[in-house]
Design goal:
Length: 110
């Protein structure tokens, strides 16, 4: 976190604390969900190459996918290795999310 300015560090710490509290104190997140969210936080605030994943996540929430597609996307995210997004298997996961969002859009337009 050496390259983060003080405002970014404060934001990072606040969001990380919120995620941890949701898991440990409130029980709203299971351990997999907590680690997934912390990994996404790292991608967004640490300036790592997200391979287009953050844009897909924004699109996912903006388009309100049907519950089945929503569950598949969540399961795909929970299975991802965020430390190695450049691997073929992680690229396939990102492509899967992209395809699901495209399919959801097609369903909504019918």
């Amino acid at each position: 976190m050496g390259s983060m300015d003080s405002n970014s560090k404060k934001l990072y710490d606040a969001v990380a604390t919120l995620i941890l509290n949701l898991h440990m104190q409130k029980g709203d997140l299971n351990e997999e969900e907590m680690y997934c969210l912390l990994s996404i936080l790292d991608l967004t605030l640490m300036g790592k190459n997200d391979r287009g994943l953050i844009g897909l996540l924004r699109e996912w929430k903006a388009n309100e996918p049907n519950p089945e597609i929503d569950d598949i996307i969540k399961a795909t995210l929970l299975s991802m290795d965020f430390a190695n997004l450049e691997s073929d298997s992680q690229q396939k996961n990102i492509e899967t999310i992209h395809d699901l969002l495209r399919y959801n859009k097609e369903l909504r337009e019918r």
